[in-house]
Amino acid sequence: METRRRFIVKGATLVAGAAATAAGPTVFTRHASAAGQLKILQWAHFVPAYDKWFDPWAKDWGAKRGVEVTVDHVGFADVVPRATAEVAAQAGHDIHMFLGLASAFEEHVIDLKDVVATLDKKYGKQVDLAYRSTYNPFTKKQFAVSDMWVPDPGNYHKEVWTKIGMPNGPVTYDDLVKAAPEIKKVAPQMQIPIGIGLSQDIDSNMAVRNILWCHGGSIQDKDSNVVLNSPETLAALEYAKKLYSVGMTQAVLSWNAASNNQAFNAQETAYILNSISAYRTAQDNKLPVLEHYFFTPALKGPKATLASEHVMSGYVVWKFSKNQDVAKEFLVALVDASKESMLASKLYNFPSFYGAAASESGQTGSRKAESGAAWIAQQCNKDPFGSAPPAKLALMAQALPWSKKLV
Description:
Blueprint: E1 37-43, H1 48-63, E2 68-74, H2 79-89, E3 95-99, H3 113-123, H4 128-134, E4 135-136, E5 141-142, E6 148-149, E7 154-157, H5 158-163, H6 173-186, H7 202-214, H8 231-247, H9 259-265, E8 271-273, H10 277-284, E9 293-296, E10 307-308, E11 313-317, H11 324-336, H12 338-344, E12 350-351, H13 365-381, E13 403-404
Parallel strand pairs: 1-2, 1-3, 10-13
Antiparallel strand pairs: 3-11, 4-5, 6-12, 7-8, 7-9
Helix pairs in contact: 3-11, 3-13, 6-8, 7-8, 9-10
């Protein structure tokens, strides 16, 4: 897949020139009004309310600068194929949004180091997940800019788990194995008690990597050596086989990215790994599962407690774009709007620059990031979109320490 290009990003430090660290869009050489138009390719968000905010916001941003902004949306599965086609044609959009796969196109995009330097100056450092997903320390290239990342908690059916004596849901991976037979007894209609996909879809990819990491394995080491062939990988495989035998059916071998959402919302499974998009769907459609919808942090394995981030934005500007400076200005403005973005996505999007969500003015650096983190926690602790209880999403504000980059 596109992410096979291996490079090591841990511990890398972004070095930007002094001229690039000036705040605001003035770091760019040409004012936006000179460009005339800006074309953006954007995914169709899993929370539709976000697109209803983004498109008018982007067009209004352009109108204030004499720039005609065009936004085109594609489904998640079409993001990479469209990028491949545009690179082949050397024509298309100016800005292309990826969800964690931008590194495969590094040679075709411009360096956005000056954009990140501007944002660092305004808001403090971005979260490490975003930094490691958009910067290549070997080539020293900032190939993308991330405005948001998404936590990937466990989603559990509280009524069913309460019936088997675990009202707070699973805590460890062993809990899933122990619970599966009991779930079948108390909820025989759930033919797939544990809804973790084992197919070629992205959610299955996340889940399998979680299991690998939590058993102490990895695909490569810090020096970019492939270390998949290991006792830890074998332990993870043995665990997955055991979990499949007691808690799943062959259906999970052919699931797509929506299957786990659909199974949980139909109350056909009692546990999935997913963002809150499925939960928001249940809210919007007033589904019967809603009152039973609760969340867990990353599960504890024999060696670690980790979960993949769900998705990570990575905006690139193509080398063939004729509007590179206005594109850079737009990316700064998008991060500037991080609070609006998080609310428009109904708390699905978490800012990559926490400082951009700060409530207090006049702060800089780490203090601004702390203020932003406090604002994020405030939203999660009292969901403005009507969770019952209001603090149902509180654990989301604590997701960063157990979230790992999906590569």
